[in-house]
Specification:
Strand content: under 5%
Number of domains: 1
């Protein structure tokens, strides 16, 4: 039962990491160039009446991926699985991803206006040079986050690929106690008998 749960958690973690990496790759290649090219591009993006809800998408997917990343190695320990290092690596990458989001991206995106400021505070007034420098920092940190997501996905796929179904028991192992060994065959007529028989 625990082995089945571990296998399910490992494959679900791989799927969650694939969705997370795909979402960030789409954001980096399609959306980010529209608003991070210059401060003017950022202001045009923020003034648009409708924008993709990337933070809302990530707010659902990141906790799910993190929970599965932590659950998979825990179930692997309970199931006495070997070679758990890919699951541990995936969990570590996901924890690093979360740390970067909370420590770097949330304050930075509040300063850029991509996220609302904390209650009771106003967004900082930044000049053109400060906005340009902040956009450059955002792109650099986004590249680091994308590398972490790719590493987590590869590790999760390796963890799921390490799973093996239990081998069926041998005939002797599957025989009930007291059933005796393999049935001896009767000697063929005319066959030589062993000495002492």
């Amino acid at each position: 039962m625990i082995r089945t749960a571990h296998a399910a958690a490992s494959w679900l973690a791989a799927l969650a990491f694939a969705a997370l990496f795909g979402g960030h790759l789409f954001e980096t290649c399609v959306l980010v160039p529209h608003w991070s090219a210059s401060p003017e591009a950022l202001r045009s993006w923020l003034a648009a009446p409708q924008r993709p809800d990337v933070p809302g998408y990530m707010a659902v997917l990141v906790p799910a991926a993190l929970g599965l990343a932590l659950l998979a190695p825990l179930l692997g320990l309970l199931a006495e699985r070997r070679r758990l290092w890919p699951s541990v690596l995936a969990a570590g990458c996901m924890l690093g991803h979360l740390a970067i989001v909370l420590v770097v991206f949330v304050p930075m995106e509040r300063a850029l206006g991509l996220l609302p400021p904390p209650p009771g505070t106003a967004p900082p007034a930044l000049g053109e040079a400060e906005l340009a420098a902040l956009l450059q920092q955002w792109r650099a940190w986004n590249g680091a986050r994308l590398v972490l997501d790719a590493a987590a996905l590869c590790a999760a796929i390796a963890a799921a690929g390490n799973l093996r179904l239990p081998e069926p028991p041998d005939d002797d192992e599957g025989r009930a106690p007291g059933a005796g060994g393999p049935t001896a065959r009767a000697p063929l007529p005319g066959a030589a008998q062993p000495c002492g028989s």
